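Researcher: I'd like a structural prediction for the single chain below. Treat it as a standalone chain; there are no partners to consider.
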Amino acid sequence: MSRLQVFILAELNVAQAFKKVRGITVKELADRIPIKSPVDTVYRNIKILIDEGFVEKGIKVGKSDSYYITEAGIVALKKEKN
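Model: Treating it as a single chain, here is the predicted structure.
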């Protein structure tokens, strides 16, 4: 798992984005993450996290998709922090 992916999971966890209705958009994540990354880079990494089952798509916020962390994502984040 890349450093950026760990930061994405950590930010979703801190924001308590655990359900579809609590999801965060890619733009919001890009603004919150301590590593300054372009929105498209954050989006590509979210896609990888979705494929691994660590993140899922939430409800739309305006025209943008939102994302939230899954139980598997929380477990993976804890493993990465240790």
